[in-house]
Specification:
99 residues, mainly alpha, 2 helices
Length: 99
């Protein structure tokens, strides 16, 4: 009897497909149930988790969102600069070693 080869190198295992389908179905069911129950769980007479919201609360929340994204852009830019410097050092080392 010939041994069946994989259809292509790196092909996913045939047993994982049904399990992946079941996990996807379970995840979608749970997410739908949570989204359907959220308004009843978190809303009571117009109050959420924080309490009554007024203009001051909304303004400070918006300032927080602005600060978050400013800090996020700064940190990610610094990370990108560091990674670029690392890449440049690596390419210079490879050129120096003659590879």
């Amino acid at each position: 009897m010939p041994i069946a080869a994989e259809p292509w190198p790196g092909a996913p295992c045939a047993r994982l497909a049904p399990m992946r389908a079941r996990l996807t179905a379970i995840f979608l069911t749970v997410a739908t149930a949570l989204l359907a129950l959220a308004p009843a769980a978190l809303g009571a007479d117009g109050e959420g988790l924080y309490g009554r919201t007024d203009d001051k609360v909304i303004t400070f929340f918006a300032f927080g969102v602005i600060a978050f994204f400013a800090i996020l852009v700064t940190v990610l830019s610094l990370l990108q600069i560091r990674l670029d410097n690392r890449k440049d050092r690596r390419t210079q080392d490879l050129k120096r070693l003659g590879s």
